[in-house]
Amino acid sequence: MKERYIKQVKNRLLLSREAEDSVLAGLRESFASAAEHGEGEAETIARLGPPRQFADEVMADLGGESFAAGRRQRAVRAAVLTALFAAALLVRTLVGPGLHEQGVHTYNLRPYLLFVAALSPLYYGLAGAVILALPSVWRDLRIRRGEVRRGMGLLCAALFLLLWGFLWIYLLGGFPTYAFSRAATFLLQYPVCFLPLGAGVFAGLNRR
Description:
Largest sheet: none
Helix content: over 70%
Distance between the termini: 34 Å
Oligomer: single chain
């Protein structure tokens, strides 16, 4: 019971390694001292409070503004990396097929191969960075379920506006390339794609 409680507290702590080790060592000492005075583990846990509450109080005491600032910095880094990865993915998806088709028709694949050679390292490098960055942000947010829902709602709203703006630019005469036209035509044929985004906005931002 004691080890489970300590593990749950550890999973919710968002502190430096040194601060986390110090908190857990102090928690073990509290259990040991309580046992010496005849207090059972269940009584000690009841006195300390739920793991979530204990971890929040510790982080409020030790972290303060530095903890909040660190969380914001991690979120900003992850957002920037994700945006760069999305841009690279968009370029690869919309420009690559057009260059390939043009190369097939002109029997000259050199522009397409140069495009792939230049973009692929950036694309996969950003993918690896995003894979490592997002779990840290998720760990920051998981103690605040409402924040996670709000973040998902904002993400859905951003995607909705991005796709909607993309569609209007196409309809007003922009994006003449074949690949962009194909993507816009898909959105026009299947506007139901906007349905889950709208539901995500409502579910994420309409919190009690």
